[in-house]
Glycosyltransferase (Niallia circulans), 638 residues
Amino acid sequence: MNIKVSLCMIVKNEENVLDRCLASVAHLVDEVIIVDTGSTDKTKEIASKYTSKLYDFEWVNDFSAARNYAAEHATGDWILVLDADEFIDEENYHDFINGLEEDNGEFDTYGVKIINFTGLYGEKLVQNYHDRVYKNNKEIAYYRAIHEQLKGIDGQSLNGSIAKLSVFHSGYMNQTVAEKGKNERNKDLLDKEMQESNNAFDYFNLGNEFYSQGEFEEALKAYTNAYNLKSSYQLSWVASTVIQIISVLIQLKRYNDAVNVIDDSIELYPGSFEMIFLKGEISFVRGQYDDAKYYFEEIINNSEKYNHTILRPDLKDQMPHRRLGDIYNYEKVYDKAIYHYMNVLNINKLDSDSIKKIIYILNKFHSEDEIIQFIERNDLINKNNLSYYMSACFDIGKPIIIEPFLKYNNEDNLLERIYKLKNYCLTGTGNIEEFKDLLNPQLVERLNKKQMLNIIDLYLLRNRLVEGNHSPLLIAAFEKDEHISMLVKLLNNITVEKLDEAELFLGSLQILMNYKKYDLASSLLNNKQLLTDSALVKVAAILYENDFKGEGLQLYNACDWDVYSEQDFLNIINGLFETENDQNAIEFTKYANLLFENDFRFCKILLENPIDDHLFNTTVKKALETFKGSVYLEKYLL
């Protein structure tokens, strides 16, 4: 059976992603039809490399109208619909075609799995199903201006199934959404749609738009309306609505309400690892780390039991390991932290957060050569993640670690030149001619914005260029930069009467600690009298967390308690316990427990260090009321 497939797309200003999409699919389908709704960039030029069937369509604020116009030009047996910011896997596509042949025309439409990369760098995964394949029999069309769906033209019911096809979508990464103004556009179209229908699915989609913009109260209202108006629990979006309601309640810090929703829903979705993960997430954000470990390990150790994905496939393995890594990192159990971060990288080698934390932890205890051997032994670096490891090594002031791996950068030597520039900033070694082209104000500013060079790097670079009488234009730019000029004064004992930006001081101190340039850090700290209490307490935290605990505690003592954060109190309490000043530690804990009643860490200290029955009993009572469903607290129910 020779099935012919027509790819139909609508596009507008997609020059950044269209080539990736078409390169993944154009050679697999029988024809490509592209409808352009008003591009002003190179979209049409890129499209013309893959097809001559390129049509213009005046945008009328209706996605279905544009999709149906594209379908009018299709000649294949089946229509496949993709967006420009999507792409597919070739092997998976062949499985999909085989499935179509096996079904022998039994179904009219097919839903495909859409795997959405979300977050800042695409580090989160969200999964949903959407009808993207349908018979080209002129009896099926899209309707709805947005979140379009298929229906029979004459009202006939459609027989649908799920295709063996996964589509990867990058359009909901934060930067992409912001650049294209998707939220505003979608909300406008949804408002129009809801004026006509006002159904449950519209409320679900409206909730998603509010959620992505951080309008959580409005999102909760919309999701609640969607759930209350549902016609059936079996609709795929209903389970997603439940997950989103729980997520919104967590964002609103209505933790016990979120636990109640999970407990009410878990029987409806018994194989859902997402329900278990969200219980763990609630525990995590409230400092219930024993409970969080219990739930995250429950998922990891029972993967066959929890096999039902509602919305977030990454909550089954990647995120539980990441959270466990974060907990053990916080608890300074570094071998277990490394173990879990490595498990994240086994799933996703591009997870920049885990990469940075592994390199940071290794740098605490190992030499540069040992870190290089660890990376080589575990085969961690490839051409796709090289820049992430470079950034991580730059952050700790050890660019030399990345040098053996620059061989993976085959396209050009830009990364190698950046490495040499960074190394020159930190050590003063290297041949300046090898990266001289980077020494211009515009490029240095760009590297600073890309976080390849930070403010301390620029300060060190300025000093080395002045000493060697190099790059007068760049030196002149540095002299005009108010941040660098201020840093020159702060680090060279030049009198400063006022510091307007505490963040310059704090950021510089953290970098100097990461670089282990303690002499410069000491010079900077000579100016701490310029800081307010709210900034000084952050200096204390930086010192404490970098094992200058005595100095950190002294600074804490000079600050007003009103500016202490939860972690500041914990640092002071732990410092008091370490010096066997238990009575004062408990007094601090009692006070902090009143201030931060949703942070379990203070409850736990009081429970595990009882000084009298009354304090113990009142703490247990309050904890059981506040931290509903805690596994850790069950032992206190007896």
In short: The chain has a mean pLDDT of 92. The two ends are 69 Å apart (CA to CA).
